[in-house]
Amino acid sequence: MDKNLLLQDVLSHLQSDLEQASLAALSAHEAATHEENVAENKYDTLGLEAAYLASGQARRVEELRQTLITWRQLRPRPFDIEQGIELGALIQLAAEDGHEQWLFLGPPGASMKLQLADQSIQVLGNTAPLGKLLLGKKPGDEISLPVGSRQQVFEVLAAT
């Protein structure tokens, strides 16, 4: 699987999310500043609620903008056994029950599932609990992830 194609998919999804969030923020701002939302008495909170929504939407747009900038700086490199898993790695994991999954490890903020060559790939940030555990690991290593009151064990099958 081509990690650069995966990266382009992530960037495309993030760009689309940013465009949608920008439209939502614009709509929320227009609602917050519309003359019909001016409070008629101290109990009329429609304008205040619209302003809170607009503020939240604006924060979401900025978060997506920053995530997109960070992901654009990612340059996936071939796996180096000396370094172990690092940002830009494509990892195949096996759970104790035999279930296998592919992960694409990158900077935070872009959790999504992608399809590439009939393969489902989970995009994972390096600040996620599983992402943190994977950093520096090599094929054959096991990791243990606390899930509720038990530990879920995974084996790294492959990394590219």
Automatic annotation (TrEMBL):
Listed InterPro entries: GreA/GreB_C_sf
Highest taxon listed in the record's lineage: Bacteria
Any GO molecular function: DNA binding
GO BP annotation list: regulation of DNA-templated transcription elongation
Name of the protein in question: Uncharacterized protein
Organism per entry: Ectopseudomonas toyotomiensis
